[in-house]
Automatic annotation (TrEMBL):
Pfam families: HicB. It comes from Leuconostoc carnosum (strain JB16). SUPFAM superfamilies: Ribbon-helix-helix. One of its GO terms (biological process) is regulation of DNA-templated transcription. InterPro entries: Arc_rbn_hlx_hlx (IPR013321), Ribbon_hlx_hlx (IPR010985), Uncharacterised_HicB (IPR008651). This is Toxin-antitoxin system HicB family antitoxin.
Length: 114
């Protein structure tokens, strides 16, 4: 639909979503210490404007804990080893899965999925 008025938007969007999705989004926002509104705004901005090539290539991928080389502190992603930071844990659990939430050069920030 085309906005024929070219008027400035209010910044408010009424949105209906499945209650289970609402609950999951609220939980993720809480885990990040954000309000639901702030979390959704961040997700929309990141989706609209991926910040870097690395973000576009990696963010959102899920990595198995089996892909970590704990001795060298590297993680294997698609056959290439990267340094990593764990966002919500002090150590890697090799029986867990991790989502890549940020990529900066050869350093990936990962979050354990619970």
């Amino acid at each position: 639909m085309v906005d024929k008025n070219n008027s400035q938007k209010s910044g408010k969007i009424p949105l209906r979503i499945d209650p289970k999705l609402h609950e999951a989004l609220a939980k993720r926002a809480n885990q990040e210490g954000r309000s639901l509104n702030n979390f959704l705004t961040k997700l929309l901005e990141e989706g609209l404007h991926p910040e870097t090539f690395e973000d576009r290539q990696f963010v959102g991928q899920v990595i198995s804990g089996e892909n970590f080389d704990l001795a060298s502190q590297l993680v294997n992603v698609s056959g290439i080893y990267y340094r990593y930071l764990i966002d919500n844990s002090s150590r890697v659990h090799q029986d867990a899965d991790y989502a890549i939430i940020e990529a900066n050069g050869n350093i990936l920030t990962l979050r354990e999925l619970k």
